[in-house]
Write a structure and sequence with these properties.
The complex is a heterodimer. By secondary structure, chain A is of the alpha/beta class. Chain A has two domains: 8-251, Thiamin diphosphate (ThDP)-binding fold, Pyr/PP domains (Rossmann fold); 258-392, Rossmann fold (3-Layer(aba) Sandwich), CATH 3.40.50. Chain A has twelve helices and 15 strands. Chain A has helices spanning 12-23, 37-48, 62-74, 85-100, 125-129, 143-157, 187-194, 222-251, 276-289, 307-314, 335-346, 367-381; strands at 8-11, 27-30, 55-58, 79-83, 106-111, 136-139, 166-171, 179-182, 258-261, 268-273, 294-299, 301-303, 319-324, 352-357, 391-392. Chain A has a seven-stranded mixed β-sheet, with helices on both faces. A six-stranded mixed β-sheet of chain A has the order 9-11-10-13-14-15, sandwiched between helices. In chain A, strand 13, helix 11 and strand 14 form a beta-alpha-beta unit. In chain A, helix 3 runs parallel beside helix 4 (85-100) and helix 6 packs across helix 8. By secondary structure, chain B is of the alpha/beta class. In chain B, strand 5, helix 7 and strand 6 form a beta-alpha-beta unit. The longest helix of chain B is centred in the C-terminal third of the chain and has 17 residues, at 274-290. The radius of gyration of chain B is 19 Å and the shape is globular. Classes of the chains: A alpha/beta, B alpha/beta. The interface between A and B is medium-sized, with 20 and 20 residues. The structure holds thiamine diphosphate, iron/sulfur cluster and magnesium ion (MG). Thiamine diphosphate sits between chains B (67-70, 86, 110-113, 137, 139, 141-145, 150) and A (31-33, 62, 86-87, 90).
């Protein structure tokens, strides 16, 4: 049995729709929004063509989409959905409910800016806003990563030590709509990898009636429930790595929470999420030829955050730039920057850092912008100071 | 409490040189995003001609759109405009009207925006009878996101999410609005532009919640999949299916099957308008506080 198929050229959205088809979840409930739309639209075609057994639910808003997913997952069904931007924002209330009910729903969040002004292009402000919601969050660089992450989702989310919803991200338009290479797994390999859904208590088990999410009063167990959610997140970190490793055995593609590029001998490094990593690597090739020791860390697992690992990886470099494609207004920096500063402090790593904000609302990130950042870091490694406040890349009027 | 002044220009300004609808358009933002043959521009123009007829002052008129091809119209209009969020234009407009009862407030929405994601806001706006005029562009589909079924796609309609035909019935949006409490309810089409203009004009002057359903064609996302194909054919179809309310009154439900009943369908001036009754309440409460 061949585990992987031939190389093909697909958009990020098509790649994810294909993975969903191979997973063939029991239920998909979704509402259209750019740039997620053709994930679900392709999927509805698979349903119409009888290629999957899925119950496909069209709803009248994302709030209803996530609510339907919660009902379905609570009834014990494997459940998937997809959204972007305002759609994710509208789900907000029930996004938290899904996590606190410990329902292993899998959602694709195709990253798009939040209003206003109205903007349909990529940044990470949508999913970054959901970082404290109790969902596992995995960011992907390209179509292949997005596909692979989708295949790996249920084994992580449904793992008995975890039992949490999981969302996969990739950059709207840049990845969702652009055609890139994909080497999919065979249908049988996907089925084999994800296995059967583990039996857990569910609403349809009339022998063991259960209640989901009831009010249990001021003196109830809410607090302990939250602690349990956090323990599940902690447990998820090794489960995710195990799943990455098991996937590597099947495909040869080895993922890590953090993907490091040329970090062994790096003097300076950029930390980034998503498609910008590809741009950074092309710049690095040029700078390395000049003799600059530059490295790159790409974050894949953002929740749970691999705190110790990031601190270890960055402990050897003299200067680090963290690139954020979302801002946290009024905070010391963007969400990724804050996370990394906290990790470095926690692990006692003292290195120079700077926060660069880029790509908001789809603003281009040019190789030159990244080159400028690397050169700034190289100067800092040589003794210069780094800016204390945010550096904005490719801002108009500069 | 001062009299609420109607937002129609004083006589001297109406005798100024004849204006065209360009007066209310940001023509510098053209070309617009709409597809060739789309009916949304026709409906928008009917609204603008109604505005011209009334001499609506830009400074005292606020147009609020939701999200969708139809709601996108606000981006081209030179009034006070708010391009809000999907489904919530009426909620934004409610705030605007309560804060500024003297403004003329218009909502432009789509069948997805107004009847699906924003359906709850629609019925409550009707119930409150706030003096807002809502024009719902009904093209039977989510046009902007690529042709998914909307509540108005209708039984058997083909959509990207309903490739074998939609199996859910639609709302009769006008009956819904009337039942929910709207005090002016009318329906027109993008074929009957003069009628539509008149219905919108009267809706704007009606002191209460006015709901105007503008049935229109989306040749790209609906027409592509459903007969009749092509914008001209779709317009002819609207012409054939439209039937004035007076004529429809003597017809049986069977005869009316598939027809679009147009004209003023409901009007009630006996119900108090919300900003007016709110002002009266303020006066009463403040009056008793002074005592
Ligand atoms: C919360 C949220 N969900 C989804 C969307 C995506 N979206 C934009 S327009 C639209 C449908 C619009 O349909 P309709 O109101 O009928 O307008 P039309 O384009 O047909 O004129 C959708 C689903 C959004 N902008 N916000
Ligand atoms: S998709 Fe349909 S509604 Fe939207 S502009 Fe084109 S024709 Fe008009
Ligand atoms: Mg529509």
């Amino acid at each position: 049995m061949a585990t992987t198929e031939k190389l093909m050229a697909v958009t990020g959205n098509q790649a994810v729709a294909m993975a969903m088809k191979q997973i063939d979840p029991d239920v998909v409930a979704a509402y259209p929004i750019t740039p997620q739309t053709d994930v679900v639209q392709s999927y509805s075609q698979y349903v119409a063509d009888g290629e999957v057994q899925t119950e496909f639910v069209t709803v009248e808003s994302e709030h209803s989409a996530m609510s339907a997913c919660i009902g379905s997952a609570a009834a014990g069904a494997r459940t998937m959905t997809a959204t972007s931007s305002a759609g994710f924002a509208l789900m907000w209330e029930v996004v938290y409910v899904a996590a606190s009910m410990r329902l292993p729903i899998v959602m694709t969040t195709v990253n798009r800016a939040l209003s206003g002004p109205i903007n349909i292009h990529c940044d990470h402000s949508d999913s970054m806003g959901g970082r404290d919601s109790g969902w596992i969050q995995i960011y992907n660089e390209d179509a292949q990563e997005a596909y692979d992450a989708t295949v790996m989702s249920f084994p992580i989310a449904e793992h008995p030590d975890v039992s949490l919803p999981l969302m996969n991200m990739y950059d709207g338009f840049i990845i969702s709509g652009a055609i890139g290479p994909l080497r999919p797994l065979s249908d049988a390999a996907v089925k084999d990898f994800i296995g059967e859904k583990p039996a857990v208590l569910n609403l349809l088990d009339s022998e063991h009636p259960v209640t989901f999410g009831p009010f249990d009063g001021l003196h109830g167990w809410y607090f302990e429930h939250k602690i349990a959610q956090n323990r599940a997140m902690e447990a998820a970190l090794p489960v995710i790595q195990e799943t990455y490793d098991r996937f590597a055995e099947v495909t040869g593609r080895q993922y890590q929470h953090l993907m490091c590029y040329d970090m062994e001998d790096a003097d300076v490094a950029i930390v980034v999420i998503g498609s910008a990593a590809g741009t950074a690597r092309t710049v690095m090739a040029k700078l390395k030829a000049e003799g600059l020791k530059v490295g790159l860390v790409k974050i894949r697992t953002f929740r749970p955050f691999p705190t110790a690992e990031i601190a270890r990886v960055l402990s050897g470099v003299k200067a680090v730039a963290v690139l954020d494609r979302a801002d946290s207004f009024g905070a010391m920096g963007g969400p990724l920057y804050l996370e990394i500063l906290a990790a470095l402090y926690h692990e006692g790593v003292h290195t120079k850092t700077v926060n660069c904000i880029y790509g908001l609302g789809g603003r281009d990130l040019y190789p030159q912008n990244i080159e400028d950042v690397f050169r700034m870091l190289a100067d800092a490694a040589g003794g210069a100071d780094l800016p204390q406040s945010r550096v904005y890349l490719n801002m108009k009027g500069e | 409490m001062a009299e609420r002044e109607p937002n129609v220009a004083e006589e001297e300004s109406t005798v100024a040189e004849p204006r065209t609808i360009d007066h209310y358009l940001h023509t510098d933002r053209f070309p617009h995003i709409w597809c060739p043959g789309c009916g949304l521009g026709t409906v928008t123009a009917a609204f603008l001609r109604a505005a011209l007829e009334l001499g609506l002052e830009k400074e005292r008129t606020v147009v609020v759109g939701g999200i969708g091809c139809s709601s996108r119209a606000v981006g081209y209009l030179d009034f006070g405009t708010v391009h809000s969020i999907h489904g919530r234009a009426l909620a934004f407009a409610t705030g605007i009207k309560m804060a500024h009862p003297e403004f003329t407030v218009i909502v432009l929405t789509g069948d997805g925006d107004g009847a699906a994601i924003g359906g709850n806001h629609l019925i409550h706006a009707c119930r409150r009878n706030l003096d807002i005029t809502t024009i719902l562009f009904n093209n039977n589909v989510y046009g902007m996101t690529g042709g998914q079924a909307s509540p108005q796609t209708g039984m058997g309609g083909i959509a990207t999410t309903a490739p074998f035909g939609f199996d859910e019935p639609s709302f009769d949006l006008c009956r819904l609005a009337e039942a929910a409490g709207a005090t002016y309810v009318a329906r027109g089409t993008s074929y009957g532009v003069r009628q539509l203009q008149r219905l919108i004009r009267d809706g704007i002057t009606h002191p209460g919640f006015s709901f105007i359903e503008a049935v229109t064609q989306c040749p790209t996302e609906y027409g592509k999949r459903n007969p009749p194909k092509g914008p001209v054919q779709m317009l002819e179809n609207l012409k054939e299916k439209a039937i004035p309310r007076k004529k429809a009154e003597g017809m049986t439900p069977e005869e009316l099957e598939g027809r679009i009943v147009t004209g003023l369908l409901h009007r009630d001036e006996s119900v108090p308008e919300l900003t007016a009754s709110y002002a009266r309440m303020l006066e009463r409460v403040r009056g008793s506080a002074d005592e």
